User: Fold these one by one.
Assistant:
Number 1:
Amino acid sequence: MHSEQTSPRGAHVTGRSWGGLTELWQRPRGQLPALDALRAAAVLLVIGSHYTEEFAARYAPVVAASRFRALPTFNWGWTGVDLFFVLSGYLIGRQLWRERLETGTVRFGRFILRRGFRIWPLYFFMLLAYAVTGYLQVNVWDVLFLSNYKWGGLSRGWSLSTEEQFYIIVPLLLIATRRVRRPAVYAWGMAGLLVAVWLSRWMALQDYAARGFTGRALSDALYAPLHLHCEPLLAGLAIAFASVVRPDWFRASAERRGVSKVGLGIFVGASALGIALRTLNKNVFPFTALGLIYGSLALWLMLDRSWIQRVASWRVFYPVSRLSYGMYLNHFYVLPSVTVWTIAVLRSRGASEPLWFFGGLLVGALVSMLVAAATFLLVERPFLLLRDRLLGTRHVNAAPTHAAEPARGEPAPAVA
């Protein structure tokens, strides 16, 4: 059955599939390109990290032996999850802050329904696909989004559990504090939450150390739980709060052309503070450091109007950004099969190490995008259209224009 869908740019697209393909290429009007560039970078960092570590160790030892796996982009690729958290904290936080400050409360059921229709269909579809093919053993922690506390079959699904818990806790806190009238109270409240996370990590550190945890085992134990790893989410939430409460700050900066000196200064200062905190105690402040670095980077790009913004506006980033959720969920299966074949073919033909190493990663990422595009058209988009019919809203694929304007659509979930 066919339907007529209005594209984000106002052109009419006949057919459900063509409308979906249009959404994957045309950035909606009013969407900040810098956030697309950051989300695209985040998913590529994560895939690159898995390519050179987990995947290489199991399926392609030749990749693990390559000198290129020592590049910083691969060594620090795991931090892509924290960049996702910053973006999610900002995009979701902005919606919630606006509704809370304008209406005095948050419609919890409507919010959860919107987020659920965005995340659950593809997530449970992929869990089913993995279980049916025998790729992994799904357990109750995967289904309940608690795999950040109890390890699930989809081992890297912990970040999705963290986000789901964030989506529940934050609106409930805003509803519980609906009698609060002074925005400053919320600012102090977020600062208090940050201190609470530090105390929680310090107490957990003492407990695990007393039980004999050291090195990587200690870091892993402190890694996944929400109450021990939420500083980047708080950073994004704080930026969203400032953008809603003091939009004039962002508007005045956005009107200036060239490199944003304010944004650059915040980035340099916050990054220096983050590095100093991590140097002080790498077990208590590691994610605070990443929250400061990535949060200030996102803020800088929101304010900047120089050549940096023009590069971030390249359209190629948008499809990767839009498909990042699907790429995260499918790349565990795609990388082992596709890249092993690609590397074998290139090496058999005498390709140099840089060519087969990066060629395997590139082909794996491209196939992951194609699979994500297919699941978007077949799984994600139908549920998004159904959601909009149920809620009586117009389907758009958009994120905020800039911090001084309202969010106009549904941001993609973060992935790790």
Note: The radius of gyration is 21 Å.
Number 2:
Amino acid sequence: MVKTKSIYQPREPQDGFRLLIMRRWPRGIPRAAVDEWEKELGPSLALLEDWRRQRINWEQYAPRYREEMKGKTELIAAVARRAEGETVTLLCGCRDESHCHRTLLKELITS
């Protein structure tokens, strides 16, 4: 099972394996808050900057993120294998889950 959650939400037992998928470490979060950090599954800094500065909209962001992830198939497959045996919670600092790469990555993992 794959779940998504903000890194700023408290840890819960049902989170299972907590995987941080951000390029940069989130402010104010201790390392013990996650089980693993896989920054390569976060958007590139260039894509993130375009999104944050509103140079692109969600309809442009989503395919660019998916394109970046085409080079990360082994990492994605490893997360998918882990999710077959335990719950994996993808963590990111985005506030709006419907416009966050963690939701896009969940789709890639579970498809």
Note: The chain has a mean pLDDT of 96.
